[in-house]
Amino acid sequence: MNFQKAVAVIVGSFLVGIGINGFLVPHHLIDGGVIGIALILHYFFSFQTGLSMLVLSIPIFLYAWYYERPFFYSSVHGLLLTSLFMDWLNPLKKVFSISILTSSLIGGVIIGMGIGLMLRYETSSGGTDMLAKIISKSTSMDIALAIIVIDTLIISAAAFTLGIEIFLFSCVTIVIIGLVTSLMKVRE
């Protein structure tokens, strides 16, 4: 791994950890994909978000091992660091006291920057980033659109337990994440 990619993985993972813990968790907002499932497990069962993300990503990483090995090698560092930062930065959930709308917007921008930075250097935090990369590579679908579709499916499945307000603000967050991710990729 070259120096720029290593910095992108560290900074991107750190940004995702800040966005999740500082802005989504205080309002029980959901990101999509593997992180979203890990957040649901955290909200309902008090599981560690990062550890849950790590365990849930195993099937996707096994698939990548066989079909996208270079991306597997690039992303395993992102998965490990993002999981670590998500659990390490958990105390941030008590730091910011802002509205749910502001949290969904700021959290979406920060997470999107982290994911976009990693994707710009052909790495990711694993999970649905990796799945979206695989879908994007095998179809003509933009990676940001693939992320939005996957994320929307995840939060739609969880909508009945979270309530309509949380669901709607989570949708705002996911759209912002997708847009910022796309902007970060365009700036290559």
Features:
188 residues, 9 helices, 79% helix, 0% strand, globular
Structure description:
- This protein is mainly alpha-helical and 188 residues long.
- It has one domain.
- 79% of the residues lie in helices and 0% in strands.
- It contains nine helices and no strands.
- Helix 2 packs across helix 3, helix 6 packs parallel to helix 9 and helix 8 runs antiparallel to helix 9.
- The longest helix has 23 residues.
- The chain is globular.
- The chain starts with a helix and ends with a helix.
Annotate the secondary structure layout.
Blueprint: H1 3-24, H2 33-45, H3 49-56, H4 58-67, H5 69-88, H6 100-120, H7 127-138, H8 143-162, H9 164-186
Helix pairs in contact: 1-5, 1-6, 2-3, 2-8, 3-5, 4-5, 4-7, 6-9, 7-8, 8-9
Low-confidence stretches: none
Q: Characterize the largest beta sheet: strand count, sense, and whether it forms a barrel.
A: none
Overall number of structural domains: 1
Average pLDDT level: 88
Helix and strand pattern: HHHHHHHHH
The geometry reads as globular
Helix content: over 70%
Task: Work out the number of β strands.
Answer: 0
Q: What structural category characterises the helix and strand content?
A: mainly alpha
**Treating each run of at least 4 consecutive H or I residues as one helix, how many helices?**
9
How far is the N terminus from the C terminus?
Answer: 18 Å
Cα gyration radius (Å): 15 Å
Q: So what's the oligomer here?
A: single chain
Please report which band the strand proportion falls in: under 5%, 5-15%, 15-25%, 25-35%, 35-45% or over 45%: under 5%
